[in-house]
Design goal:
By secondary structure, the chain is of the alpha/beta class. It has a domain of 147 residues: 3-Layer(aba) Sandwich (Rossmann fold). It is 52% helix and 14% strand. The protein contains twelve helices and eight strands. It has an eight-stranded mixed β-sheet, sandwiched between helices. Strand 5, helix 10 and strand 6 form a beta-alpha-beta unit. The two termini are 21 Å apart. The structure holds guanosine-5'-triphosphate and magnesium ion.
């Protein structure tokens, strides 16, 4: 399945919800104040965020005054244009090697699964990959990662349950240097910001990477579950206080009408969504493309 088709499928619910409501709204009447109020509500219902939805509708109102905008198609095209302009300023992430990618996030968002998918993704690009089982907290976490390592035929560095996560990372780095690994993918335990010891552990991992592998290109990617909608934004806040976040991986974009959260993330945090998860399988990961996303949104 091509990239376009997959993102298109993953956004099916978001698109259907938006298009159906916008069409219904435009089928009865003018572009008056009521129309703009309702359109704002529709955008908010797809988790684009209150302030962002209002800004978008204000821009649309301005444009509508200048140009002739009447049909549902005109409105959708203008919305696309507004969103594309908005994203044009966003700095894209260009991965450089050797890369050390630490995957962080709250419990159950899809961190370990994403590492399995990323492993395949980088191997497809002929990159040498090593996995680091940095979730030493949850029972069977490293077994779960080992299964992905087997499935994708990838090297894995792990310690016993309860070991110091930063020590596993240290070993991972030594191994990566010895073997000339291009990409080191570090799994971490799911954590809430209230778990201070686990949050401090992330800082420690960060420190070990900076100290032991300064020549590597370091990326901290936070995994967010798209189905949690606006809640995902609070998670960025919670982690931001402890480590620098370089980008977002948005999982479970399949099966949710909350795809608009991508827009809220850009607007509020200026953080790029780098990859999206569109299913549970090893191939269900796509590099994120904003233009394609917007084209598929309405
Ligand atoms: N539909 C769908 N399910 C996903 C996706 N990514 C992960 N999942 C599912 O989400 C569940 C949790 O995935 P994990 O990878 O174990 O999540 P985690 O963040 O590592 O969880 P903890 O280590 O417990 O914090 C699993 O059932 C995955 O199959 C996705 O893109 N789409
Ligand atoms: Mg996990």
């Amino acid at each position: 399945m091509g990239l376009f088709k997959k993102i298109g499928n993953a956004l099916k619910k978001t698109r259907e919800a938006l298009a159906r409501k916008i069409d219904a709204l435009l089928s009865h009447g003018e572009l008056d104040d009521d129309f703009y109020d309702e359109l704002t509500d529709i955008l908010i219902s797809c988790d684009i965020g209150v302030r962002t939805s209002m800004d978008i509708v204000d821009s649309l109102r301005l444009e509508a005054r200048k140009n002739k905008i009447r049909t549902a198609e005109d409105v959708k095209n203008e919305l696309k244009k507004i969103l594309k302009d908005e994203f044009a300023a966003l700095q894209e992430i260009k991965l450089e090697y050797p890369a050390i990618i630490t995957i962080i996030g709250v419990n159950g968002v899809g961190k370990t699964t994403t590492i399995g998918k990323l492993s395949k993704y980088f191997k497809n690009q002929k990159r040498e990959v090593t996995l680091v089982a940095g979730d030493t907290f949850r029972a069977a976490a490293s077994d779960q990662l080992s299964q992905w390592a087997d499935r994708t035929k990838t090297r894995i560095i792990k310690h016993a349950e309860g070991a110091d996560a930063a020590a596993v990372v240290y070993d991972g780095i030594s191994s990566a240097k010895a073997k000339g690994t291009d990409v080191l993918l570090v799994d971490t335990a799911g954590r809430l910001h209230t778990k201070t010891n686990l949050m401090e552990e992330l800082k420690k991992i960060d420190k070990v990477i900076n100290r032991e592998y300064p020549e590597a290109h370091k990326y901290n990617f936070i995994v967010l579950d798209a189905t949690t909608g606006q809640n995902a934004l609070n998670q960025i806040n919670a982690f931001n206080g402890f480590v620098h976040i370089d980008g977002i991986i948005l999982t479970k974009l399949d099966g949710t009408a909350k795809g608009g959260v991508v827009i809220a993330i850009e607007k509020d945090y200026h953080l790029p969504v780098v990859f999206v998860g569109v299913g549970e399988g090893v191939d269900d990961l796509e590099m994120f493309d904003y233009n394609e996303f917007i084209d598929n949104l309405f």
